[in-house]
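Much of our argument rests on the idea that a fold can be written as discrete symbols. Part of our work consisted of pairing the sequence of a single chain with a tokenised description of its backbone. The amino acid sequence and the backbone structure tokens for this protein are reproduced below.
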Amino acid sequence: MYNVGEVLILGGNRFVGKALAKKIVWEYRYNFVDVFNRSGTGPRGTNIIQGDRNNREDLEKIDWDKYDTIVDMCLFKPEQFQLIEYQIPKDTNYIFVSSGAADERYIKYYGDYGHEKREVEMLLKSSDLNYKIVRPSYIVGIGNHRPRLGYYMNKIINKEFIDIDVYGENIINVVFVQDVVDYLIELVCDRERKLFTENIVGENITVVDLISKVSEYCKDGEVLLVRDNRELLFPKNDFEFNTDNAYTTLDDGLKEYSKWYYEKGYKEYEYNI
């Protein structure tokens, strides 16, 4: 059994942060998890602190000294980091969930989002904090509020056209939410000062091959592709990573995801099957 300790999750009410909080609470019940977010919501068993991270007064609601680990799921801008930098004790295990969009090979394709994530990384590296930076690729899976896999399944099942860029040959990388959560828990438990940046990735695959793979897990339907740019689910650029440390395979992940989708996921997304 891991020693998770006392954890603060900044965010914790949407996708990965919510899944992380649930797993810690449900599997490590003796531990204490706080979530801080604007909506004032979070998984059952967590202590919820409602507040806006852009508001200094709201940040004062947090007892920064009491946590063994802080997992920052919703840090997007340098000024947000500057508001909390000197609140966090220098030895506290601080995990920043950045993005593969901050990779120098791809940053130009993601506008302010990629550049600002990269700026936060640089600020962290120049600080005295005990940081770990993780860069997920495209995160997919159960509970995604931006259902990339669900979007494709819905289109295929209902025989609707899917927009792709020309031939859909750009390479992307998708990682399942459970793999991101499991890796974050490993980092939560490893509180040594290691100061590193690490990618969290799954398989590399072209967009058109991903659509074809998703179709294998649809009980009925048809893949109809239209080579247009009106409603692209993924940008036109490549987003490829070294997969030596990849986790769940697409087949294993899609098998689990499709089961959930047909049982209740389509209702959550308000799709028809």
About this structure: Helices lie at 16-27, 56-59, 78-84, 111-125, 148-157, 177-189, 207-215, 250-268.
